[in-house]
Design a protein that fits this description.
single chain, alpha/beta, Rossmann fold, Structural Genomics Hypothetical 15.5 Kd Protein In mrcA-pckA Intergenic Region, Chain A, 3 domains, six-stranded mixed sheet, five-stranded mixed sheet, 18 helices, 45% helix
């Protein structure tokens, strides 16, 4: 596979393919931009799709520019959502930015990555400077963006600040003199704005490459923490393995393509194997990418022991009744103390639905007491959460 074919593999859309092929043939070192807004502390496997493509450019000798949108993160881009993102404080943005960098370097090469922040130029700009940029775009052009058009038709409010976001993202490309910009399909409009602004400022127009949006664990919507259908870079190896095993069978082929970067002919060969074996291979491979081969093999062995042979894992978190300062303690209180669950409402729902077991027996009473004279108690929720209550 030649360079252009490798870079085209797995993409959704490209604008400027001929220009890219020409520059590659000329051995030109390209500035490849990927912008991320640190609005949350975790990167997900959805981010991994574009990070993989950025690493491919790195491997071919091009300059990878990871732009931290520490200023645009305070503005908010709905990206298909029905409302503006919550406004973060500068301190929250900076904390998230630091975790983003730590996680991103699990995929891309830190030694070959240029880190920039768009606060470098936006904090120096005056209101007059912003007006000059704003004159480059019309309201009609902004309403060509699908999510803006949808909200306008439905008479939902659109903040003027949101109209500024694509302009700010496009201006980033001017400041970086980007040759290529990567993004998900939901960023296509913004990336095109970058091309338009570069042309207006007398720069060569950047090549736009968009990657498919990764489907989440529900098999329907794009992966997002908002939908609670995500796998994050910071999940434990056990949670990562278990979450991958929970995806629908038909979805795993996109994971092989976009996350593992397997060729189509390899995926076709995998489709001839038993789906459960293939999914375990996917889970082991992805866990190994983040934690190493030995951890991947260990998590697969433990998964098989628990779910194929109905065994209880040897190693699990322990919580002491003494530390909880209660004896006895209700099942719901113990689950809340474990911090494995997002809310008391979720805990109550899981118990009432029979999704929680105590010592192998389903328990639907959230006021069920765990007493020290009957310890240890093994609490299991779903397929992934086990913990032990000791005196």
């Amino acid at each position: 596979m030649n360079a252009i074919d490798k870079l085209m593999d797995g993409i959704d859309t490209i604008v400027g393919r001929e220009v890219l092929a020409e520059r590659l043939s000329q051995k030109k070192v390209l500035k490849v931009k990927l912008g991320v807004d640190p609005t949350r502390p975790d990167l997900t496997f959805g981010h991994m799709v574009v990070f993989n493509k950025l690493r491919q450019f790195q491997d071919l000798g091009h300059e990878a520019i990871l732009l931290i949108g520490d200023h645009t993160a305070t503005v908010g881009d709905p990206s298909g959502r029905s409302s503006i993102r919550p406004v973060l404080t500068p301190q929250e943005v900076e904390q998230n930015a630091q975790t983003y960098l730590e996680q991103a370097f699990k995929i891309i090469d830190s030694k070959k990555t240029t880190i920039r922040r768009n606060s470098e130029w936006f904090r120096k700009m005056t209101f007059d400077d912003m007006l000059i940029i704003a004159r480059k775009m019309t309201v009609a052009r902004m309403l060509e963006r699908d999510d803006f058009a949808k909200r306008y038709r439905e008479n939902e409010p659109i903040s003027i600040v949101e109209f500024l976001y694509p302009l700010m993202q496009g201006y980033d490309s001017i400041m970086l003199e980007a040759d290529v910009e990567l993004g998900g399909t939901d960023q296509f409009f913004n990336l095109l704005v970058g091309r338009a602004l570069q042309k207006d400022y007398g720069q060569p127009e950047q090549i736009v490459i968009t990657m498919p949006l990764l489907v989440g664990l529900d098999g329907k919507r794009k992966m997002s923490k908002s939908y609670d259908n995500y796998i994050s870079f910071n999940h434990s190896s056990k949670d990562m393995f278990g979450r991958i095993m929970s995806i629908p069978d038909e979805v795993m082929w996109a994971y092989f393509k976009l996350l593992m970067e397997y060729s189509d002919w390899v995926i076709e060969a995998l489709k001839k194997r038993h789906p459960m074996d293939t999914k375990k291979f996917l889970a082991q491979s992805l866990v190994a990418r983040f934690f190493g081969p030995e951890v991947g093999e260990k998590e697969q062995a433990e998964f098989e022991a628990v779910f194929s042979h109905n065994e209880i894992p040897e190693n699990m978190p322990e919580f002491s009744l003494r530390a909880m300062a209660k004896d006895p303690i209700t099942l719901a209180d113990a689950m809340a103390h474990s911090q494995f669950f997002e809310s008391n409402r979720e805990i109550r729902r899981l118990i009432e639905q029979g999704a929680v077991k105590v010592n192998g027996k389903s328990e639907k009473n959230f006021k069920f007491f765990l007493q020290s004279d009957h310890c240890p108690h093994i609490v299991q929720s779903g397929k992934r959460i086990f913990f032990r209550i000791v005196p």
